[in-house]
Amino acid sequence: MYAIIQSGSKQYKIEVGDTIRTERMDSKVGEKIELKEVLLIKDEDQVLVGRPLLVGARVIAEVREQGREKKIVIGKFKRRKGYRKKAGHRQEYTALLIKEIKLPKPAAKKIQVNKDTS
């Protein structure tokens, strides 16, 4: 079974037991969080696709780590102008361990009663 979730502005394909790095979330290490933005779930021969999200589907994950990526160096340069500029950036991340993928509960079927008007 796998699912495609959205966290922040990115989408991730996940399975139970995977560790993913998402954009930073306000959570403490060891805390369990619930991700509700599930776009698709594939379970053996059944595929559930949301429009755009699956209502009632959830992913349970545990926060493993809060950290920062390696530094990316940004350099700007214009020839013959004496212009040089150097900057760096370190993106913050949250490492999540996927514990469980919960399928949405089947919708209750509406029963319509036809009333005789005779």
Structure, described:
The chain is elongated, with a radius of gyration of 23 Å. The termini are far apart. The chain is mainly beta and 118 residues long. Strand 5 and strand 6 form a beta hairpin. It has one domain. The protein is 0% helix and 56% strand. It contains no helices and ten strands. A four-stranded antiparallel beta sheet has the order 2-1-5-6, with no helix packed on it.
Secondary-structure element pattern, one letter each: EEEEEEEEEE
Helicity level: under 10%
Instruction: Tell me the number of helical segments per DSSP (H or I, 4 or more residues long).
Output: 0
| Number of spatially distinct domains | 1
Main β sheet profile? 4 strands, antiparallel
Structural class: mainly beta
Spatial order of strands in the largest sheet = 2-1-5-6
- Principal-axes geometry comes out as elongated
Multimerization status: single chain
Low-confidence stretches: 107-113
Radius of gyration: 23 Å
Indicate the proportion of strand residues: over 45%
First CA to last CA: what distance?
Answer: 53 Å
In round numbers, the mean pLDDT is: 90
Summary tags:
118 residues, mainly beta, 4-stranded antiparallel sheet
Give a concise summary.
By secondary structure, the protein is mainly beta. It contains no helices and ten strands.
Please write out the topology.
Elements: E1 2-7, E2 10-14, E3 19-23, E4 32-35, E5 38-43, E6 46-49, E7 58-68, E8 72-78, E9 83-89, E10 92-102
Antiparallel strand pairs: 1-2, 1-5, 3-10, 4-7, 5-6, 7-10, 8-9
